[in-house]
Write a structure and sequence with these properties.
Shape: globular
CATH class: Alpha Beta
Strand order of the largest sheet: 6-10-9-8-7
CATH topology: Ribosomal Protein L22, Chain A
Helix content: 25-40%
Order of helices and strands: EHHEEEEEHHEEEEHE
Length: 221
Amino acid sequence: MAALDPEQAPVVVIANRGLAVRIEDGHLSTEERAREAKFIRQEDRQRFRTTHFLKRRVCAAFTGIQPERMNFGTGWNNKPYLKEFTGLFAFNLSHSGEWGGIAAAKANALGFDVQAAIELADFPMSEIMHPLDCIRANSPASAALVWAVKEAVTKANGIGLGYALKKLCIKRTSDDAVKSVQLLGQQWFVRHGLLADGSAIAVAMNTWVQMEKIQLLEVKF
């Protein structure tokens, strides 16, 4: 992760799931390999391996802790944390379609989602869309974008996957690439974008100033 500069955080690091074939078992913990083995489909195993490899590398860049010495847990709010580090640091993982990735920042809260393009016939419009959403799900890419923005907010808050996404209203801001979403009385800002294959990515944080600093890095192989 030589190109990663934690002082210019937040960052999003993504990689195609094909990276998994180059990741040796030793880069994952015993527990992570056991979780990986439970997936039936090869593409699921590849996404998992790629994402958790990136997790250890990015967390090492931020904390200085060696990847092989890391132990991870999940807090009361369903957010992941690094047990060996108590400083200001937040990270979040996501994988979908061809991609796996992590967002990380020197912050107290952060949510990240990557979502493959969704065919409109498969998009649960009534369960996801708010009547006043400023992004309309009228294409596979825009449907993925709506989904990613709302998922990023729920993950930043830690409320969990059971929250009704149709309650969240996506609003415009002065920056076309940043939206505002209120969740349980708290305002979140979400920077979003589309990858070349139509997949959507979104990062949610509770401060506007952080939105201007987000870097996107793709691991090439």
